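Quick one before lunch.
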Amino acid sequence: MALQISALFSYIRAPLFTGPLSRVRADFKGAGVKFKHILNTGRPQFGGKPATSPLRGHINVALRTEKFSTTPTAALWKSSQGNGSSSPRGRRGWLGKVALGAALGVSTVVVVQSLHTGTLTAMALKINLNSAEGDWKETKDFLLSQTVNDRRQYYRTSSYEKLDDIPVWTPAAGASEQPLHPRNEKLDHKISLYSGDITELEIDAIVNAANKTLLGGGGVDGAIHRAAGPMLKKECASLHGCETGEAKITCGYGLPSKYVIHTVGPIAQGGVGEEEKRALRSCYKNSLETATKNAARSVAFPCISTGIYGYPPEQAVHEALATVREYLDHHHDKLDRVIFCVFLPTDKELYLQNLPLYFPAEATVMSKL
Ligand code: AR6
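Model of the AR6 complex:
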């Protein structure tokens, strides 16, 4: 018992309902009703709503408030008493521990979750995603070994979007412009257009529009690093940078996304030539290849290079859509979903206009009558 209590003390530092575990999120999907109930304690919210202004490239994700000042220390608890909870004694033990947890300022959710198979006896690993201390490799191995459900307690974002809740884009028949690619029905249900903050997507991999250092920056890069926490920069530092058009993968750490694929878009402030076009296409292709090599089946892209790097978005959209289309034609069995994540209303419009050219609906047969 002494060990149990000391384990509890060393495990729990955060007061009741703070830290990432403060979020008790219940998604009830049944009878067509969905509740997303988030218990929060008034800690600063992680903004991330898409900008409504058409201003480009200077989305001040950096202004979004820093968050999660508490230190969540996670642990793996091992059961030593089998499933003692089914006996009356076990049930008393449970209740006692839940009460003890509450008295100690421990989230009841944590206690119940930790004790569901028996008594606390050991801490196998401490995870602190708010600190740069600690071994990123161990942290990564631990997080990647978790199920999505188990990983949720480590998210540092204030909310997350499940893959199943991200609508699939369906082409409307009768597009006014002639498609640039033939229809491929194997690609139905594989494309989404998501308007919002990429850091909130609970998918296999999100793509980061990074710079060659891979050590963070502004725009979407800054947002991803802030949301993932300092371990991401530690792993990035081990990668020794990335060339334009290349892609490298890391763990997502405090992000709902399992992986981050970092790619470096071309700087196009001096205009777009063949070299910039090729580099932008390489970003998309290499990111998709990196995803499939790592068995990531759902991938989200921001509009690479179209912010700080100045690539005209009305040109970039074609490179993005053409490359994804070509890749999916050859590898549709390796990917379940490719999500184009737009942050600006103007980008959403561009994608809505151009998606039917690359992912057309079945041709409508015109009646002769
Ligand atoms: N979620 C989704 N998209 C976003 C988000 C977000 N949270 N925040 C911005 N965007 P940019 P770049 C969109 O400037 O042009 C960094 O400093 C934004 O609206 O982030 O490739 C790097 O370190 C735009 O559509 O990336 C590099 O130095 C898109 O993300 C440099 O910027 C890309 O804009 C890279 O510049």
